Please model this.
Amino acid sequence: MRLTRNGSRTPLRTLAMLLTALGLGTATVAHAQSEPIRIGLLPPLTGPLASPGREMVDGFKLFWDQVGNTAGGRKIEIVIADTTCNPDQALTQARRIVHQEKVHFMVGPLCGHEGPAVAQVSKETGVPLVMDAAGADTITKWDRTPTVVRTAVSASQIGHPFGEYLYKELGLRNVTFIGQDYTWGHEVTLGAVRTYTELGGKVAKIIWNPLGTRDYGATIAAIPQDTDGVSAVVVGVDRLRMFEAWFNFGMDKKLKIHGGYWMQQDVLPQMDDRAIGLIGNSLHYAAGLDTPENRAFTDAFARKHKRLPSWFAESAYTAGLWTKTAIDAINGKVEDRAAFLKAMRQAQIKAPRGLLRMDEYDNPIQNVYISKVQKIKHPVLGEVLTNVPIKTYEAVSQFWKWTPEEFLKRGPYKR
Amino acid sequence: MTTSAILQAINGTSLAALLFLLASGFTLTFGLMRVVNMAHGAYYLLGGYIGLSLAERTGSFAVAIVGGGASIVVLGYLIDRFLIRHTGDNHLAQVLLTVGVAFIIGDVALAIWGGDALKVPVPPFLRGAMELPGGLVYPTYRFVLILFGVFVGAVLWVLYRKTQIGAVVRAGVDDREQVSATGIDVDRLFVLVSAVASFLAGMAGVVGGAFLALYPGAEWEILVVALVVVIVGGLGSLEGAMVGALIVGLLDAYGRWLLPEFSYFVLFGPMAVLLLVRPRGIFGRES
Amino acid sequence: MPKAARILLALVVLAAAVLLPRVAGPFWLGLVTQMYVFGLLALSVDLLLGHAGLFSLCHASFFAVSAYTTAILQVRHAVPTALAAPAGILAGTILGLVFGLAVRTRGVYFILITIAFGYVVWGVAHRWSSFTGGDNGVTNVPFPALGTLRVESPTEYYYLVLAVLVLCTIGYRVLVASPFGLTLRGIKASETRMRSLGYHSDLHLYVAFVVSAALASLAGVLYVYYNRFVNPVAASFPISVEVALMAIVGGTGTIVGPFIGSGIILGLRNWVSSFFELYASVMGLVFIVVVLWAPDGVVGLVVRLWVRAVKAGTR
Model:
């Protein structure tokens, strides 16, 4: 502390200070080992994504409570900073937890556009960032940072299998794509459009809706008459509006709609039995997944929070599991950042959502589940709506079936 | 194509009905009391949330509407009486103060109702779709919303134009000093108009919460659109709020249908141009 | 306060600012840099608000347009800072020339029209994603460099911002004390009187608007090199509201006011939120308290207390 404060007089000394701090870190490992490991969690607790932010905290804490808040023989302390889903705030909060709270690594952020801000802090301070759940493709493709690894998902990673599913399994040939008009929405939607059209499918129309679109009546009126199926990528409150509009306009009697990214667990309590039987998502997690790991996780989560976890909770839980695995592998020496990052990259994880490992571009290779909304009898919660997988694409890479070089050369998905 | 065009017209009108409920209160309080109340959106949100809780307890949509509106009347009165009253005619202070109030209301609502988008449950007979002449299928709720908006608009208009109280309010909009000189209790008049405005905002929250859902941040989204309505129509004018709501609703629906790429300009672009040409809006008068 | 005391106080504040990096850790240094940048933006808003009586809610537009211009030139076209930064300021100022038309209106209409302008710019930043990068914005902006002179650390950047700030406040001081500044305050006090005296009030307000936009653009350039990225949030309505509130909370019509306000609001946001979840309520309370008990902002309050203390002392 003293050192840092006295050291930052001139640029040269700042550099010296940084080096000293780094050197100090490794030199005093033996001493530091007795001290707790501090993890900085960066959820949005207020603002438009406050609710997923809450899920993120609940999932992360659940994991660490289950393992007694220890890893690698050291106590774990979690420092939570509210990013409010605002990049400026994310930047200062990330700096705060790094410099003031002295966290050993960061987990987060959740909002896509905060991703670059927090990665920036990781880049300038060297403090590792475990990116969860912000999903911008570019972070693990064109704009990588050596100190950033991702444990959640790349947006287009869930889009690619969905395009194939539309063509091959559903036999659709003239699909209308409804997409949310921002980066995540573009990447998920256009990922599906690409695999679907490469197989020979025809796009009837792509309809982009800004975030917070009030009236989905206009969207529904714009769906071409001759389309044979609709794919929906909608987020936030728009999910409810889309749902209501679809049924209220009687579209359920005319056409089939399939959610590429739509009916996540957190929105299902606000929906009703009309949702049953719809394809809700093409996602790397479905709460209704029937594996021992997922049952254990969902039951524990349901007992504690009286609801089923969404993918944000699972993702944060798994980020906890993944970081603990890495910390254990290096015997708690998180001060050695390079070793920690290496352990993160080499870990094999048996998460609630399935087997996970990192590809060479620091993004998980994982299953993608096409799931249907079903009403199930849950041991803790009774009757609930949830997503039950009906088709599993195993070990999906963020590059799908292309080589990384091909994909990277093609550039990002843009509207 | 024509079916779509007609559908969009109805869509736009149903949004207009909701916007009118919120904008009419805003415009009246400005017209009479010269108060810019930026907490109006927060009133909408809180009224909606209270209505939601009432609807869940009692199962009655009517109770939700009345309860949501009435609770905001109480809150609005307190805020008027103890806070806004102290700002006099200073718009700047009013904006700052009411933004502060809106922050607090939004925060408290987040603490009570959480961050999930919640929908006010609608009674069964308003759910689903109805068939309109010409084979058009349209959501029942939104169709009834149009009728409701027209009904409220008509009631307000009659009150405003055809009753003695309305005449006093109109006189107050034109010239406040003169009204108080005639011995009318201006204070009581203010309380009355502000109660109506609060009730409309709270009610709009319940009605809108069943169709747009309620969530943190909804207060600002709806406020900004309601502001456009008020500005386009002309601040302080009831007729302006009606016409403005219709224009904004239709622009929004047709704009999103025909020019989806430009949906932000469709609302704000024309408004900026209109204001440059006619700064006081369509029905606004030069002061 | 006597003039000598004022100058002394200014020097003390300046000395404290210069010495700050010696005592503050990197987080505080970064936060203070951010306070300076937003304080400058608030100062630009206050040129209209405190001196001309116009409440603009579109200053995030100039701020963002300039930040985007600089970032895009520097990142995508490898244009050096010496050109990219002035280009950013120029772009923001040109936008100010257009939006300046809003001075045709007054009072609440001016507020509302500027809200509309602000939304248009935000919409462009958000929707024109092939150019602006959509909601990811433009990332990887380097530290500024002038030829061989390059900024290489947050501490150096802090000093750069501080230097720009000092120059700006001196220029600002000269501007508001000039006949032009007097005319603006005359218009604020009574426009009809100034008109009847033969002043072309619309033109004066227009010039003030453009100058204010230029200052906001300068803040935008400082912002983009501080953040090292820019995205549509920079152009959003909440930023415009927040900086206006900074000026009001600190004290309008003063030079230190906007900076104090920026310090209070950013401080609250970053510090209170670290231990108290309902920090938006705290902000709300601050606004209410300011309106009811400190209508002239913190500066006004301090001056009032000072006057009272002096009176009590002489009694």
